[in-house]
Amino acid sequence: MLAICPNPTIDRLVSLDRLVPGTVDRVRENRAYPAGKSVSAARGSLANAAVPAVHVLLPTTGSGWYLDTLRAEGMDVTAHPYPGNVRESVIVLEDGGRVTVLNGPGAPVTADIWDGFVAAVTAAITPGEWVICSGSFPPGVGPDALAAFVADVAAAGGRLALDTGPVWMPFALAGPVQPALITPNLAEAEAILTGETALESTAVGADALDRAAGSAAGLHARGIDAVVVTAGSAGLAWATADGDGRLPGQDVVVRNPIGAGDAFLGGLVARLEAGSTFAQAARWGMATSCAAIEQWSPGGAPSDRVVHFHDLIAPG
Ligand SMILES: Nc1ncnc2c1ncn2[C@@H]1O[C@H](COP(=O)(O)OP(=O)(O)OP(=O)(O)O)[C@@H](O)[C@H]1O
Ligand SMILES: [Mg+2]
Questions:
Q1: Distance, CA of 150 to CA of 285 (rounded, Å)
Q2: pLDDT digits (tens, 9 = 90+) for 222-251
Q3: Labelling 46: which of 24, 133, 173, 272 has CA 20 to 30 A away?
Q4: Which residues have CB less than 5 Å away from ligand 2 (the ion)?
Q5: Helices (H), 82-168
């Protein structure tokens, strides 16, 4: 399997009692991780005994620490360098559970840089294998390039598992070829279906799982083979050509909720590639997300905690 990371970032986690905007404060702890959602998903795959080939479109300035740290984690990373700075995302975690995310923009790409990256990653695909692509795209990647990317991965024989936000997803779904799998969260799924871009929120209501099931069915009906809609602590629901299902959320003591969806995606795809049924793979994916959010590294999950949560989750 491959993981394609077009817009890498450094996640800078800041933990403090309470954020008071407009003041100078002293935080309790800083942590930094090489990230970008496909990298977080790759961590979820590693926790499920799969080692994806990770391809990162990586600005050169700041790339040394980024690559060294990922390789020390056991990741198989290929950098595709281009001029610019590695962006940063500041994630403020307050003791009360509130999370604020400030995402930096990527270094802009030209059409030549983007086309060269797509040509290189599609050449690396073995027909029939899964290809994860999660997260945002750097400035310069336009609507047509997104639909073309989906078609190029399919033409190379890749099974594309795509999870990108409502700014990009409608364009990625606008072409004649659809991804094999998408895994939006509930707000993203509803935004794709309604055409409205909602402000991202972590709030979930009592009807979240029903809405997730309805959204998954609605997106599957548009011609996407497999759709999972994740709904934070409420759990997740899927709709595929082989049937649908849902898994209610588990009780987790959350440290870093960022990357929950990516850990899920990485675990799900690792298990699909290993031959699990969709329902079995979804259970492993949820277990991976639970194990990821109770530790700090985005998408990272100790394998023993994945097994622990897997055994707690009733089959969907
Ligand atoms: N607070 C929580 N408690 C229990 N499980 C959670 C919680 N948050 C997330 N999860 C698990 O992780 C899965 C994915 O979470 P979520 O729907 O928040 O993804 P997301 O919004 O795509 O996250 P991100 O974009 O940060 O990766 C959920 O379906 C659930 O199984
Ligand atoms: Mg997500």
A1: 23
A2: 999 999 999 999 999 999 999 999 999 999
A3: 173
A4: 261
A5: 111-123, 143-155
**Residue 286, amino acid:** M
Question: Measuring from atom 3 of ligand 1, which residue has the nearest CA?
Answer: 233
Ligand nearest to the CA of 186: 1
Sign of CA dihedral 283, 285, 290, 294: positive
Dihedral over Cα of 33, 112, 119, 240: its sign: positive
Whole-number percent of the chain with pLDDT over 70: 98
Q: Which CATH number fits domain 2-312: 3.20.20.70, 3.80.10.10, 3.40.1190.20, 3.40.50.720?
A: 3.40.1190.20
Confidence (pTM): 0.96
Which ligand 1 atom sits nearest the alpha carbon of residue 183? 22
Ligand 1 pocket, mutate which of 164, 183, 246, 264 (most atoms under 8 A from CB) = 264
- Name the residue ranges covered by the structural domains of the chain: 2-312
For residue range 87-121, what is the model confidence (pLDDT) as tens digits? 999 999 999 999 999 999 999 999 999 999 999 99
3-60 tens-digit pLDDT: 999 999 999 999 999 999 999 999 999 999 999 999 999 999 999 999 999 999 999 9
**Residue 202 clears pLDDT 90, i.e. is over it:** no
* Nearest residue to 47 via CA among 258, 249, 284: 284
Using most ligand atoms within 8 A of CB, pick from 103, 167, 230, 250 the residue to mutate for ligand 1: 230
